[in-house]
Amino acid sequence: MKNTKQQLVLDQTDKKLVLFQPLKTVVIPNKGWVNTMRTALKMSLRQLGNRMNFSAQNIKQIEEREVNGTVSINSLREVANAMDMQLVYGFVSKHESLEQMIEKRAKELATEIVMRTNNTMTLEDQQNSKERIEKAIEQKTIEIKSEMPKYLWD
To answer: What is the pTM for the complete model shown?
Structure first.
């Protein structure tokens, strides 16, 4: 059974993730946030560079690295500070909750396990009914969810 500490961690993390849900629809600008914000502020590469003790070329490289996905979080944080902003970093779940994500994965695993057993039984001419298979999947899902075994994410 999932211990209360694990449940507490899930609940607290879900509360943090909920704050990011409205950001699901935010579209990252084609030229990246650094270039977009700098341009919106009418700040030149040289001006931003001066604020960071970097050359204009260094700022241009940061902008390019942001666009191609190789910029570091620390670099973005430094740029944000130089523009009197704060970098906000987080994950946006594709699910309504972590619990739902675990449920989905547990059901996938349970289905895999039950069907593997069912295939073996079919070969031995001991096939189960569809209802029995569905019930076994449901029970195995509950078991996996409550135990959260190490193989859950394999």
So the answer is: 0.73
